[in-house]
Amino acid sequence: MSKAIENLVEAQQLAMSLRPKVGGFPVLAETLRRAGVSRNLWSLPSCQSIYITKYGPVVQQGSPLVELSAEVPVFDREALIKALRMDQAGESSFPQFLKSSWEAGVIAYDVDFEKRTCTYFGVQGESYQEEYPSVEING
After folding, report:
1. Whether 7 contacts 114, CB under 8 Å
2. How far is the CA of 110 from the CAs of 4, 67, 104, in angstroms?
3. In angstroms, how far is CA 45 from the centroid of its own chain?
4. What is the 8-class DSSP label of residue 42?
């Protein structure tokens, strides 16, 4: 296993052990940032995730949300915000969040761990960006 993969997986495991059910994303993000991950690029519906790390880029492949052919949903900012708020409140799992984001017309998102932003993109060039709070992690 490469240093980039090993470092990322260790950071993800630590983050999941620290992450609270409600408001957990900032803890995950800060743990990854402290481990040298600067960005996370997601592609939906393939659920491919690329991490830009201090040791090199790493790709992780999740289970795709669709198979074969599917129409791309229209970008729906309000539906995306609803999916975000449900996730932030601990009312959905991460797979449910991905599915809801796709159904809201999100084809990609970019998490910038240095700027503490998440930017969501639609197929016609639409976008929506949110900042997330800085958190302190002990240890």
Report:
1. no
2. 19, 23, 16
3. 13
4. E
Which of 6-10, 18-22, 32-36, 115-119 has the least mean pLDDT?
18-22
Rounded to 5 degrees, what are φ and ψ at 32? -65, -45
DSSP letter (8 states) at residue 47: T
Residues 6+ apart with CB under 8 A from 77: 104, 126, 128
Question: Any idea where the domains of the chain sit in the sequence?
Answer: 3-131
Whether residue 108 contacts residue 43, with contact meaning beta carbons closer than 8 Å, is answered with: yes
Tokens of 132: 């997330």
Q: Name the residue with tokens 């940032």.
A: 33
Q: Report pTM.
A: 0.92
Rounded Cα distance, 39 and 22, in Å = 23
In CATH terms, the superfamily for domain 3-131 is: YdfO-like (3.30.1810.10)
Digit-coded pLDDT (tens) for 30-81: 999 999 999 999 999 999 999 999 999 999 999 999 989 999 999 999 999 9
- The dihedrals phi and psi of 64, each to the nearest 5 degrees, come to -60, 150
**pLDDT given at position 139:** 58
